[in-house]
Amino acid sequence: xxxxxxxxxxxxxxxxxxxxxxxxxxxxxxxxxxxxxxxxxxxxxxxxxxxxxxxxxxxxxxxxxxxxxxxxxxxxxxxxxxxxxxxxxxxxxxxxxxxxxxxxxxxxxxxxxxxxxxxxxxxxxxxxxxxxxxxxxxxxxxxxxxxxxxxxxxxxxxxxxxxxxxxxxxxxxxxxxxxx
Length: 180
Description:
Blueprint: H1 6-14, H2 26-36, E1 41-44, H3 50-60, E2 62-67, H4 82-99, E3 105-113, E4 119-127, E5 141-144, E6 148-151, H5 154-179
Parallel strand pairs: 1-2
Antiparallel strand pairs: 2-4, 3-4, 5-6
C-alpha cells in the first residue's frame, strides 16, 4: 500500500493478496535505522541465510543483520513467527560458538510482528575476540557490501588474519606502554 487514499484502502480490504500492516511502527524503524546507519549491514529475506550472515558479521567484527527489511528500509517481512526466528538465531549463535570453541560472540535481537502475520527484525552482533570464525564446512564467510556476504578467498582470509594480528600487537604495545 503506497498511497493512503480511500480507493487504495478499499482495494486493499477487498483483495486477499493485499495487507494493511497495523504495526509499521515508526519507533521500531527509527531504532533499526539508527543501529544500521554506520555499521556493515546484511539484509536477508530468507531465514535460511541467517547462518552465513552471522558468520560474515562476526568475521567483520561487528554489524547488523536486518530480517525482512530491505536496503530502502521497506518492511517486506518473512513468513515465520518471531518466536521461531528467536529460537533459530539463538541456536545458530550457540552452534557458532561451540564449533569455534569460543564464548565471545555476542548479539542483541529485536523482532516485530507485522499486521499481515509476517515478521521483521534486527540482530546486532559483535565479537570481542580477534579470530577467524569458520563454519562446519570449513568455509569462511565475510561481509560484502554488494550482496551482504560471500565465501572468502585465500587472499581475503590472509588479510583478515594479518589485520587482526597487527591490531592485537598494537593493543599489546599500548598496554605495555601504559605499564611502563
